Amino acid sequence: MPQQVTVTEHILLHQKMVPGATGQFTRLFNELVLSAKIITRAVNKAGLVDILGFTGDVNVQGEEVKKLDEYANRILIHRLARSGVLCAMASEENADIIEVPDSLPRGDYIIIFDPLDGSSNIDVNVNIGTIFSIYKRKSDSGGPLMSSDVLQKGSEQVAAGYVLYGSSTMLVFTCGDGVHGFTLDPSVGEFLLSHPNIRIPEQGKIYSVNEGYERYWDRETKQVLAYFKSPKNALRKPYSGRYIGSLVADFHRNLLYGGIFLYPADLRDPKKPSGKLRLTCECNPMAFIVEQAGGMAIDGGQRVLDIEPDHLHQRIPFYCGSLNDVKMVQDIFEEARSGKQR
Ligand code: FBP
Fold first, then answer.
1. If you average pLDDT over residues 146-164, what whole number do you get?
2. Is 60's C-beta closer than 6 angstroms to any atom of ligand 1?
3. What is 137-198 written as a DSSP string?
4. Over the stretch 205-227, which tens digit does the pLDDT of each residue have?
5. Is 118 in the pocket of ligand 1 (CB under 6 A)?
6. How far is the CA of 63 from the centre of ligand 1 (A)?
7. Helices (H), 45-172
8. What is the pLDDT of residue 102?
9. Do the beta carbons of residue 254 and residue 321 sit within 8 Å?
10. Is 114's C-beta closer than 6 angstroms to any atom of ligand 1?
11. Any residues with CB less than 8 A from the CB of 101 and at least 6 apart, and which?
12. Pocket of ligand 1, candidates 132, 276, 318: which has the most ligand atoms within 8 Å of its Cβ, to mutate?
């Protein structure tokens, strides 16, 4: 039986390769891993305890808050604040930056997270996830925290990842040295390396989009979908359509099999002209992971990781996955912008 590597071992090995590493990152990651285990326990027995359904509150996104979402958010904020290495946090569920209490030691790291992604699937036992994105503050440690410390471009991430709560619980992340997947072995309570150096196939065969919104898309976006459904595409046959409705689950499948996830801008809600997904806590971490795995992520024009966030809950159109597929989307939009006819 090959020796199995735990996630802590992997992080310690990575830390050795970082000049001047202080161990702060390992402590932060350990609290993230512990939070994932606590949330997994609640997700696994959700139907047996009073944790399904709504809390009755509405969050900063204008969405009704799910009890499990609120629970996961509370666990993450509590555990991460006790890592002793953070100067700030931000969550999809909280309107503003979450300060670390004065009573607790602080450090130079910043973490942004979506505590429970795929909230529409929570009550029906379909895969959901937690997404995280880690930065180092830019301003002087001794001085006041600046909003620019939290609103950094995705290309400044030092690490990003997700936990997938599915038939097994997986932790997939990058620290800028490739993408690695760990599976939780409940019998030992450890995340063990199961998917080292994940590479996304350059040519995809799956498209993931909520086609129910097609009538609200512009002409170019409809052309993009027509390409993936056409037998004249690079695959010489229509791609297979797969959509779970949890970004983490759709992304994970496409990362392993090859494909593209699309959440276009649409005209449904004038208040959300740029689509639904959040740049800082959903798109940036997935873009960092997919690029580290050999893929690509754009907002229909530019590289997601080059976008300067202008506020914490900014939404963007999102196209993410296999290199050839996302490049094709970029070409179709560029041609449309240059007035060329397809
Ligand atoms: P939450 O983080 O609130 O769950 O929102 C994000 C999300 O659920 C993604 O996981 C998923 O890809 C998308 O919204 C589904 O949206 P829709 O129901 O409009 O297809």
1. 97
2. no
3. --S-TTSPPPHHHHS--GGG-SEEEEEEESSSEEEEEESSS-EEEEEEETTTTEEEEEE-S-
4. 999 999 999 999 999 999 999 99
5. yes
6. 11
7. 67-81, 147-150
8. 87
9. yes
10. yes
11. 81
12. 276
